[in-house]
Amino acid sequence: MHQEDVRWGKKAVVWAVLVLVISVPIIAAARSPLLAWRDPIYILAGFAGIVGMALLLVQPLLIAGYMPGLPKTRGRRVHHWIGGSVVLAVTIHVAALWVTSPPDVVDALLFVSPTPFSIWGVIAMWAVFISAVLALLRRRLHVRPLVWRRTHGLLAVTIMGGSVIHALLIEGTMEPVSKAILCISLLVVTLMVVVNVPDWIVRRR
């Protein structure tokens, strides 16, 4: 019984840390004084991006079965739903920015924007959309499981890397320390999956 209590205690700690890493950047951004000078559509764009990035943190944990108390098969179903939520968040983020400033969005999409963070954001965006389309069409296209895992893994690494660089280069409503912790957490969990999940990117002997 004591061992069971310890096991549940560890699960509670992991969930608490995960909730803090996700929620603190969002709460800190909501308290930013810079919001007083922003239009509602711009605020919507910013928070859609923050929420989308926060959701990314649980995706590698779900696909690898690292979420405490959540069986791997159920975790993968949740992974699909959260993936759809990430696509929605990215779409809202880009669409709201388009309403705010169409020329800036066009420059970013054409990779001619003078702001480097825009380029990394666009790279991550296209990786998200391509990953979602392949997920929907993989059975129709008869993609082999090994090919799918490696392709999806490479796209996931691109999404994580592009999103982290995009966020770190922006000086905006996100609080620097909580943003850095979220970004580091994204990189760590992604690296954990790359190293520990067989055939996710590189074939394991």
General description of the model:
The N and C termini lie far apart (39 Å). The longest helix is centred in the first third of the chain and has 29 residues, at 2-30. By secondary structure, this protein is mostly helical. It has eight helices and no strands. Helix 3 (58-64) packs antiparallel against helix 4. Helix content is 77%, strand content 0%. The chain is globular.
Throw out a few tags for this protein:
205 residues; mainly alpha
Give a quick precis of the structure:
The protein is 77% helix and 0% strand. It has 205 residues and is mainly α.
Q: Estimate the helix proportion, in percent.
A: over 70%
Rg over CA atoms, rounded to whole Å, is 18 Å
How many helices? The count is 8
Major β-sheet annotation: none
Beta-strand percentage?
A: under 5%
- First-residue to last-residue Cα separation: 39 Å
Number of strands: 0
Low-pLDDT parts are: none
- Mean pLDDT, as a whole number? 88
Shape: globular
Task: Give the helices and strands as they follow along the chain.
Answer: HHHHHHHH
Structural category: mainly alpha
